[in-house]
Amino acid sequence: MKKILKYTLIAVLFIVLSVGSGFYYVVHSLNRTDSRSSDNQGTSTDEFIKGGRMNILLLGLDAGTIGASEEHNRCRSDTMMVFSIDMDKKNIKVLSIPRDTRVKIQGVGIEKINAAMAFGGPDLAVKTVRDFLGVPIHNYVVVNYKGFKEIVDAMGGVEINIEKAMKYDDNAGNLHIDLKPGLQVLDGDKAEQFVRYRHYPGGDIDRIKAQQKFIEALAKTVLKPSTLLKLPKIINTIQENVETDMQPLEIASLANLARQVGADNIETFMLPGEGKYISGISYFIPYQSQMNEMVDNIFFDGGYSKVAVLNGNGSSGIASRIARLLEQNGFKVVRVANADSFDYETTTILYPKEKKDDAEKIAKIFTNAQMKEESQLQAGLTTVIIGKDIN
User: Fold this and answer.
1) How many CA atoms are closer than 13 Å to the CA of 193, on its beta-carbon side?
2) Which residues, 6+ apart, have CB-to-CB distance to 127 below 8 Å?
3) How do strand 91-96 and strand 348-351 relate by DSSP bridges?
4) Angle 78-80-85 from CA coordinates, rounded to 5°
5) pTM, full prediction
6) Statement to judge: residues 282 and 316 lie in one domain
7) Residue 35 burial (CB < 10 Å; 0-12/13-18/19+)?
8) Which domain holds residue 371?
9) Which of 40, 56, 377, 382 has its CA 20 to 30 A from that of 215?
10) pLDDT exceeds cutoff 50 at 2
11) Are 29 and 248 in contact (CB under 8 A)?
12) Is there a domain that residue 4 lies in?
């Protein structure tokens, strides 16, 4: 599915930066000692390879358990989007993942994908999305519904046309939705009701369409001249309610990009699939072949031989150096990370059966690399594990 949006950059969080606030944000952030972005070191996000696409995982949290203390509240990700950004071509592709998507979560088992956040926070959510899609995730952004409401209120509300009445009450979850049809300005509370409403004929698919519609309406609100007058309050609200491993200068770079991106260079996509009940539990089941094709077109622009590079000898910077070497030889490196240990003596190329030709081409680049066929590889990626024979 394709939709034209004017600005969607990092949804609620960084869209405001596209109207010229990048410099203010950087100065403001560098002067703060409690910025959340400085407290999230050592996460599982991948190293960004210059020249490739930057992939940012956006997680919008649900309300969690009513009455639970903040530090013990296990919130799930009610909204999950991956923003794939090409800084050189100035285009943005956004993939929405239904919250009920059935996946395998490391250390947990088969679950809905939104449970990864509850079991292991942003770190596990990043790992789960990366393993599921077979793409690198370079940064994450987390916003809870309290923050979402405060950000919308700081902007003065969002004007949107509601097509039909939305009514739902969940006393156990303390969720009460009562929205009338028609063109209206939603404050933070009503905006939360709109994006959390789930009782559509098409289930999560229709819900994601509604969320994308809200982003479009939000974009129009941001473009109003009156938004600039509210900028200091908006920035403060974002910083108080957003968790991210991005640094201020990185955010400013994206803000600058947002100002240059044309309407025709932003596309939104939704994971293809259907709802099914398995053992009495409702899941979203992706259409695997269509999903693979969509992932290839969104994140790799199609046609590349994709490779993962893992550091198996412990030498600093070795994985990035080998990644650049492979890029120079026509391969698309989609992940750079550490292997399960630094004890690999010989460089090893793991490959699925159908990628043997790629593995043989990679083997010619190295002197003594070993090849090993593996059926259980992340998204079928050919994987180079660097051994101590390379330094």
Assistant:
1) 22
2) 44, 106, 116, 120
3) unpaired
4) 155
5) 0.68
6) no
7) middle
8) 304-386
9) 40
10) no
11) yes
12) no
Task: Evaluate the CA torsion angle 17, 265, 286, 340 in order and state its sign.
Answer: negative
> Is there a domain that residue 6 lies in?
no
Count the neighbouring beta carbons within 10 Å of the beta carbon of residue 368: 11
Give strand pairing partners of 112.
Answer: 102
Do 287 and 313 share a domain, yes or no? no
Structure tokens at 359: 């593995």
Condensed to tens digits (0 to 9), the pLDDT of residues 230-255 reads 777 777 777 777 788 877 677 767 76
Q: What mean pLDDT do residues 253-261 have?
A: 70
User: How many other C-beta atoms are found inside a 10 Å radius of the C-beta of residue 83?
Assistant: 24
What does each C-alpha distance from 274 to 176, 266, 391 come to in angstroms?
A: 27, 25, 48
Question: For tokens 């999950």, what's the residue?
Answer: 80
Q: Two tokens at 279?
A: 């053992």
Q: Is 150 helix (H, G, I), strand (E, B) or coil?
A: helix
Instruction: Look at 135 and 256; give whichever has higher pLDDT.
Output: 135
Q: What is the pLDDT of residues 45-74, one digit of tens each?
A: 887 766 678 899 988 776 443 333 344 345
Look up residue 358 and give its DSSP letter. H
Which two three-digit tokens encode residue 183? 């063109």
Cα(154)–Cα(16) distance, rounded to whole angstroms?
11
